[in-house]
Every structure is written in structure tokens, then in C-alpha cells.
Amino acid sequence: MQEDLYTALLAAADEHSSPETIVPQQTEIQYEDYIKYLEIFRERLYSVWPVVDYDELVQRLLIDDTDYESYALAASLCAATIAQLRLPEHENREYAGGVTSSQFIDEAHRLRQLFEYREIFSTASLLTSFFLHIFYANAEKIRSAGSLLREAIGCAFGLRMHESESYIPTDIKENQLKIRIFWILFISERTYCIQNDTPMMLQPMEYLPEMAEDDTQDKKMLSAFVSLTQLFVHLDSEFAKSLNGNTNKACGSCLGYHKDEMSTVQRDLGIEKEEGDLRESQQVDITVTRQWIRTLLWQYTVSHFPVSCNSEDPAFSSLLPAQIARETLSTFNKFSPSSIKVHGYGMELKLFRLADALLDVLVCVPPSSSGHSMLFGARDALHALEHLLLMVGGTVSPFLHGLRDRMAKSNIPVPWARWLTLEVSEIEDDSDSADSISLI
User: Fold this and answer.
1) N or C: which end of the chain has fewer CB within 10 A?
2) CA distance 272 to 290
3) Residues 75, 78: Cα–Cα separation, whole Å
4) What's the predicted TM-score (pTM) here?
5) SS3 of 40, please?
6) Dist CA 47 CA 281 (whole Å)
């Protein structure tokens, strides 16, 4: 099945590709420019994308300046890093302090045209497509982002990353890299497709990423990725498809979770686990992803099972999004803004889903239940999530605009809360300060 999808992907790519592709003019990007942003990736984003060995890539760039595949990977990774962190070089077409993300993107596309990248199944080519996807997602070019994600997945199929037999027992390091790449694609595809209501191709595979057995920094970095992968295993394909109304099964025989399983999973996800000595940005990623999945499960629940404002089982409470929002914001109080903003587009769409579900509750709750204890502070929580969307995506965020449009149509008043009076320049400050913003 996955091979058939892969063949279809290549055919679609050939249909939409022009045989007379115009190669962009070469940009004056120096070796030092690559190093500058690759170092930022290593320090701030390797824990998010643990699939590129900084030392190995830098060495390849240094040895051979005609290694177009490695330079294309480096250019795409630099562009993704700038876009994900919302550095000033992302907003400006020209920037005196460095190369812009758009210049790196143009260079990545130019370099790819210097070799037949569509005919090459390699890790570097796959990751180039993936980081191009990250850039375009953060640039709000969602169709381009989706096309490049499918391109990366097609390359993964070509490399047989979905087949257990392709993992040679003797090559542990290479196996673990391929496993991490597979799961980062799986996580990205689930996130993108659920948000944009598009088909999913990847299925969970037998192997999960593992942490190194030695006490290295890499082990600490990977521990969060392992935890994140375990969360995404909950999003099996049939359940994920049902979120967008793609199944018409009756409640008793619906695909995905059944009632007892839903209760168990919600209870397990509702327990905040001790994740050990993780970076703040890693704790943020795990926290918001866990609560996002709980929200997806709740949305599945209300469309498949009876729910009530007074349910003794929180999994079947129609007010659960209010509790999820409060828990999320309470946890976020101890995090710095920079550790939240580092997750870019993925953080935006997850916060939007939490806020959107909470707004559903505020709009639909019957007057008789408006004083329920679970709804205390719910409107303030909604505005706090609105503020977080502003902080992560800025004033141009389509998620922010979509939420504000719904709030306006629902007559949700603007509260007195301090965070809504913050200047945009203060919100968008990319300081590494450990100070947190009080949200509730």
C-alpha cells in the first residue's frame, strides 16, 4: 500500500514539475554564513529536529564546495532555522545582519537543480525536502509545505524506511538515524494532515527511537524526542482520519478508539509525567503536544459518544477543553517566551486547536451549566491562548486571525488582563531570558 502511494507521489510530482525549470541566480552566501545558522540550529533546534549531525555536515561543506547535495541540505536547514525561530532575517528580504531565509531558500532550490535530486534516494535529499517543508509552513505557504512534505515521505519510501527488514542489526548508528527520520516525518505528517484535512500515508512502524546508552549530551537531547514519539503513537491513522469526519461508522463499531479505551487514554494523558532533565523548549513541546492530543481525543469523543457537563469521567465531559486549557497555561507559567516561540508553526496550530475547542465550549454550554467549576476562568484562559498565538505567530498569524474572527462572532469580550496590553515589540522579543509571562 505504501509503495503504491509512493509511486503515485512521484507521478504527481512529475506532472507538476516543469522540464524547463529556471535556476535562480546564485546568491553570494559564504561558508561562514552557513556556519552561523548551523550553529544556531545545533544550540537551539537540534532537540526539535535530531536528524542532522552538525559536525558531519560542516565537514562535508568544508571538504568539497561542489557537493551540491550537502550544500542544498545546509541551505534548507539554515532557512528552516531562521523561519522556525522567527529571526529578523525571516521577515526581511534584505537584512544587514545576515543572510535572509528567502536567500537561503533560493539557494537551496538553485543547488538542487544542479543535480538530479528527484532521481536520488538519499538521507540528505529527504531532509532537504523536509526542511523546505518547515520553511514554507512557517511562511504560511501551506500548499507548498504539503507538497514538500509528501516529497520527503516519497523519498523515505524509496529508502524503505517503513520496512522493518531495511534496518540492518549491525549498523546501530545508521539505524537510529533512519528511525528518527521516519518518526519525525510521521509526527510532521500527522500534525499537518490533521490540521489541513489531507490524506495520511505513513503508518506506525515496529521500531521506536531509542536513547543512547552513554551519558552524552545527545542522550539528553533525544530523550524528549523519544517521549514525543510515544505520544504520537496514540494518533493511529483510522482515529486521525475520523477527526475530519472521514468515517461514517456508527458509534458502536467506529474505527479508532472505543469508549473504554478513550477513558483509559485520556486518564493516562491527563497525568503529567516527570520527564527528567530536559531543556525548557523540550518540556514545552511535550506539554503542548500532550494537551493537543487530549483535545483531539475529546473532539473525537463528542462526535462518537454521549457527553455531559456533569460526567463523572472527565473523558466524557463536554467541558474538558476548559480543564485542558487551564492545565496548559498553568504549566506554561514556568516557561520563558523564547522556549515557547522556538516551535513555530507547530506550536501555533496546537495552541489554536486548544483555543478553538475551548471557544466551542463557551459558545455551546447551556446557561444552566455556566457556573460549573470547570468553567471558572475559562474566558480568561481563552484570551491567554490568544495572547500565546500572538507571541508565537505575530500579528500576521492566520491562526490568530481565525481565532479572533470566531471570538468576535461569538461576542467574547476583551478582558482586563495585563497580557493583552503588552506591546508587540515586547511580545516578539526573542530574549533567552528565563523570565516567564504570567498567563493566569
Assistant:
1) N
2) 9
3) 5
4) 0.81
5) helix
6) 8
